[in-house]
Amino acid sequence: MRSAFSRMSPDAVGSLRAVREVTLSPEVAGRVSAIHFEAGGQVGSGALLVQLFDGPERADRRAAQAKAAFAGIQVARSQELAPTGAEPRETLEQRRADRDQAAAAVQQIDARLIQKQVRAPFAGVLGIRRINLGQYLNPGDAVATLTALDNLFVDFALPQQELNRLKPGSTVIVTSDAWPGRRFTAMVNAIEPKIGEDTRNVTVQALLPNGDRALRPGMYVTAALELPLQQGALLVPATAIQTSAQGDSIIVIRGSNARVGGRAEIVPVQTGRRVGNDVVVTSGLRAGDVIVTEGQLRVQPGAEVKIAGAIPAKQGER
């Protein structure tokens, strides 16, 4: 047996989902004049990915800039003449309004030029390219997906019995058959307020750091909630538990050197949840006790027992 200062909830099948993922598309219609990315490439936030043909907009901007420049000259002239009375004050105010309108026209065209571009809204990895050079795109046509892989959501469900132990910030241990033997640590960040009426499960969302990008959105994983520390509890093989009308009990070998042998004693125990092939024992045993895990029917209370290969519990082991 081993000390159970921390214990796990039953394993739950979960799925991974990107915290940030978007299908990129243009805001306006246009012909693709340049493609600045490769499928599967890493891009930074704000990177230009696709340029739509913007010849008419650029011509409009040059004309608007010329008007704005002329309007600025007119204002400067009126500012010199108005104080001398050579030009009415109303003319100066009108030319200032014309200058402001011309500047606003340039800004409007700049906004149209921006709409002719598709940029990355955040840093991430691009998916398969779905467009070609010269292709005509309409608003909403898919260009590619952009996914941030540095953090992932783990969505899974736990029985309602775990609700009293579940809270934001709880640790979740995640494993995947893609990485045998490796454990990933996530943290609960959201709990569905409603219990599923069909399953009586509560849906949980955990945030999983994925700095090395070992995991990908869409993968299924196994998730288990690491429950609060429980001092004094022990994990024993389920086969060691004997159940009767009087309750649960375990045969413990008592003696000065129980590893070698001693006297068999039936000890009543309090048990908790099952964790894999083990059962949590909350009271009745001490760390280091040697117990019988099989063949109990051949062991009589008070009988002398010789043991081969006994392994006592180790304090602090998980």
From TrEMBL:
Tell me one GO molecular function of this protein. efflux transmembrane transporter activity
- Domain CusB-like beta-barrel: start-end pairs: 154-225
- Superkingdom field: Bacteria
Biological processes per GO annotation: xenobiotic detoxification by transmembrane export across the plasma membrane
| Subcellular localization | Cell envelope
Residues covered by the Multidrug resistance protein MdtA-like barrel-sandwich hybrid domain: 20-147
The answer to whether UniProt assigns keyword Cell membrane to this entry is no
Domain Multidrug resistance protein MdtA-like C-terminal permuted SH3, first and last residues per copy: 233-295
Check the record and name the InterPro entries matching this protein: Beta-barrel_RND_2 (IPR058792), MacA_alpha-hairpin_sf (IPR030190), MdtA-like_BSH (IPR058625), MdtA-like_C (IPR058627), RND_pump_MFP (IPR006143)
Keywords in UniProt for this one? Coiled coil, Transport
Per the record, its GO cellular-component terms are: cell envelope; efflux pump complex; extrinsic component of membrane; macrolide transmembrane transporter complex
Q: Which family does it belong to?
A: Belongs to the membrane fusion protein (MFP) (TC 8.A.1) family.
For this protein, the record's PANTHER family field holds:
BLR2860 PROTEIN, MULTIDRUG RESISTANCE PROTEIN MDTA
Name by which UniProt lists this protein:
Efflux transporter periplasmic adaptor subunit
